[in-house]
Give the backbone structure.
Amino acid sequence: MTIKKAIFPVGGLGTRFLPATKAMPKEMLPVVDKPLIQYAVEEAAAAGVEQFIFVTGRNKTAIEDHFDHSTELESVLVEKNKTQALEVVSRMLQEPGAVSYVRQQEPAGLGHAVWCARHLIGNEPVAVLLADDLILGAPALAEMTAHYKSGNMVALMEVPASDTGAYGIITPGKKDGQVTEISAIVEKPSPETAPSTKAVVGRYILEAGVFDVLSKGQRGAGGEIQLTDALAARIGHVPFHGFDFSGERFDCGSKIGFLKANIAFGLVRDELRGDLAEWLPTRL
């Protein structure tokens, strides 16, 4: 099924990357030569998404500027006949009216950020992509939409048992290839109480009923409105599945994950691979 709309929650403060994120949104941190948010937008576009909804916070205007025309820059590139650079800049632009921005007025959790976009969604399924979760390889959302039929779907990956307290963790049911039925889900359980080591990664396909649950404003782990809790409340009402995506996920919300992503993405670039592979062993 083709999903036409996608939500990008980008209102976080990015405190783990201070001072770099004091004046720049964390989603604008570059991996090689593209900001994290651009990778997420390109992944959504590759899955057939046509409407891109950014849920922003204060000091996030750099994201809006990034996906808009820069008349001065484009004029200079034309004047200097830098056609390749002009093409790179032009590829970032979407159709007029395809990009929308909604302000999340308080940092009340992922569920709250998603709920803030409710008026732009209507009664159709919508994708949610977290730019912090950068995936190398096959576009995860395109894989998910190819297997999505109805209800809710989340991307899944195996994590060490010691790390379950950092993720939403599922109780898995029947498995069919890359698709797993989910009978329960819990946010950030301790290793002792976690029902499995199958963790949710920042790719979701949500049906409209999730927004009805989020509208109640119930607080969960960390005193925040958790998307995980809304998904759990819909179990039994609509189908709920997890998808084991093919690519490799990097947690770019952490410094080590961000550094690993830059190296991994650099190594798959033809113009960088040789020099980078030659240099890396000299630093070990």
